[in-house]
Amino acid sequence: KANRKFHPDDSVINVGGALIGGGHFAVMAGPCSVETPEQVIETAKACKEAGATILRGGAFKPRTSPYSFQGMGPEGLELLELAKKETGLPIVSEVMDISQLQYFDNVDMLQIGARNMQNFTLLKEVGKLNKPILLKRGLSSTYEEWLMAAEYIMSEGNEQVVLCERGIRTFETKTRNTLDVTAIPMMHELSHLPIIMDPSHAAGMSRMVRPLSLASVGGGADGLMIEVHNDPSKALCDGPQALRPDQFTSLMKEVIALRQAL
Ligand code: PEP
Ligand code: MN
């Protein structure tokens, strides 16, 4: 169902009014995790102002260490909904397992994180929903495995899938992951599904987000996911890779100009 052969036209996915694919470009921006009402609302307003089309924010966080901040849970989703009311931006947030799905009724797009790309039970369950799914590429997954994960969702009836390249694990250790820009033309060739790029989790450092974003736009991506925090030094998760609102604003100007030049 994800195969371009049987579906020559680009899919266009509608996330609460924000379109992705077939020439429509989406920018998902916001904090790694929802932390406080002030943090999420201040950040959301700045993202909207700069031109983001979707607000991101994690309430359930898949942290490497069980002793790290695990997210605010259902309360975090409520704050995200509040930020949606304040800004009008649709929201995307990660669901880590089936038991959490009950809290996501008012979330516009569900994110399947890299670590869950092959959680087939979860994929089948979100495949039964009528809601767009953001499917992140697994840390060491091939294109074929990634597309098969999309098939798990689509074969249950939900064809609203957006792919997200967020960097893969390679032999390089200077960066958190290696952003695979080849995924853009390759996925466009193999599939009709939109593909967006997440330079924040790929690089792991804020100063690399701009060049990787511009490379992604130049490479034909259907959108970007960028972590933005109103005060990155105080972030409870992924602070080193978060852009400040002013950095995000200037990046957006360049992204828009580059898209116009393409
Ligand atoms: C995230 O988007 O905050 C996240 C945890 O992403 P990934 O699953 O790509 O690591
Ligand atoms: Mn993060």
From TrEMBL:
| UniProt key word Transferase | yes
Q: Where is the DAHP synthetase I/KDSA domain?
A: 17-256
Which keywords does UniProt give here? Transferase
Q: Which domain of life is it from?
A: Bacteria
Q: What is this protein called?
A: 3-deoxy-7-phosphoheptulonate synthase
Q: Which organism is this protein's natural source? A: Veillonella rogosae JCM 15642
Gene name on record? aroF
